[in-house]
Amino acid sequence: MNSELDILILAAGLGTRMRSGRAKVLHELDGRPLISHVCETALQLDPASVIVVVGHQADEVADVVRQTLDDPRISFVRQERLLGTGDAVASAREALAGRDSRLLILSGDVPLIRKETLSELLARHSAENAAATILTVCPDDPAGYGRVIRSGENEFERIVEQKDASADELAVGEINSGIYCFETKGLFGALSKVGNQNAQGEYYLTDVPGILKSEGARVALFLHDDGLEIEGVNDRRQLAEMERRLRSRTIRRLMLESGVTFTDPSSVHISAQAAIGRDTVIYQNVTIEGRTSIGESCTIRPGTRISNSTIGDRSEIKDNCLIADSSVGEDCIVGPMAHLRGKAEMAEKSRVGNFVELKKTHLGSGSKANHLTYLGDASIGTNTNIGAGTITCNYDGKNKNPTTIGDNVKIGSDTMLVAPVKVGDSAVTAAGSVVIEDVSEFALVAGVPARTKKDLRKADETKGN
Ligand code: UD1
Ligand code: MG
């Protein structure tokens, strides 16, 4: 049995227990919406299709999925009235009509499930020749989940929801993860036999395996040993707890597998998507978000936040910096209290110091901007020094304009560069200059507005004679 794979993700629910104006699956874990975690994992299994069932805030949920994962295999079906997980699956009846596939059903609110576990589930399903295979687990605390009842022969008997369970059934430790593999063909027939005579008045998907079994089909159980992976988020306490556990798992992996030092692991927040090289030291109260990559032997001092950025080997980020969507080369020093954003780029051996902001600016190799400076929409060459208090006046009230500064330039303290403007190689601006027109290479300019006072090349030649 090696049929195609379709994946259905249930994400239409209200998420009442979140007590939120936002659909539950839009709440974020590790900086990304819950639904995006699940869709991303689904795509890794190389399916023929991924169908997301949307209902509550359907357009918002679909938009978020499209924005985070633009993939033609993903489509959406709408559950008109939220009558339960069985009804949610039924709303994909047309989308899946005629499919002779395996259907993997995932929950939009079970975000940490890994592709390896799902592959094992699919393999078990095929090996057992089953009509349905249920992923189960024995968590520390089974409260709230549906319990999996086994027969005397230790075979699947049925699933009973917490709210419908007797005291004996509540004592069962094995729970339904809400993740299943079905033969698509047999599923919809069984689904039409599901009623809503239960404590919640809902059409439960969890009744389907019992119905299949009563019709003589094989229902297999795949007991998995990692409770965190199948944990569902139903309220904010669970969301916070999952965030905490995911974080400590990430930090543990970085320490044991990547060789990263943390001076106070419990105080740092590191995205599970981040990569950090060996012998890097991360101090307390550091936050590292998104797909950030930090090289080897770096030092990240207390209070810094780095988001979706790259830091090269041996660079030091001093205290209280914010670096977002930017890149820092090898052997750089940043901060304390510096701000890089909007694709700022620091080439190797460059330096940005106290109260300096870089936006959409390239700072060339060996160049320095050490104090109290704003560089926006600028390109700066190599070995140039930007004096204290320099400002690129890049915004004229309507447009953002570029500043280009060459190699070996000395920008004097408190220079205003009124963009668009260019400063040639080896030029010097005197302290307090307001540069409103281009400066030639080797020119010394001064004043308000700045005028050329000297050609430094000639001055050099004179000296040489
Ligand atoms: C469900 C299972 C339970 C299992 C648990 C695992 C049922 C009846 N129960 O319970 O056995 O232990 O998951 O986490 O299936 N949804 C819809 N449409 C609806 C209702 C829900 O799309 O009408 C979606 C939700 O958005 C959510 C998922 O289905 O992503 C699960 O719904 P939820 O209400 O959280 O079910 P649980 O009570 O957690
Ligand atoms: Mg749930």
Q: What does this entry look like structurally?
A:
The protein is 20% helix and 31% strand. It is built from 9 helices and 40 strands. The protein has a 17-stranded mixed β-sheet that branches. Strands 14-17-20-23-26-28-30-33-36 form a 9-stranded parallel β-sheet, with no helix packed on it. Strands 5-4-1-6-10-7-11 form a 7-stranded mixed β-sheet. The longest helix is centred in the middle third of the chain and has 23 residues, at 236-258. It is elongated and about 100 Å long. The structure holds uridine-diphosphate-N-acetylglucosamine and magnesium ion.
Low-confidence stretches: none
Count of the separate structural domains: 2
Globally, the shape reads elongated
What ligands are attached or bound here?
uridine-diphosphate-N-acetylglucosamine, magnesium ion
Report, as a whole number of angstroms, the end-to-end distance. 90 Å
Biggest sheet features:
17 strands, mixed
Tally of helical segments: 9
| Assigned CATH architecture of the largest domain | 3 Solenoid
What integer is the average pLDDT?
96
CATH fold category name of the largest domain: UDP N-Acetylglucosamine Acyltransferase, domain 1
What's the gyration radius in Å?
A: 30 Å
User: Count of DSSP E strands?
Assistant: 40
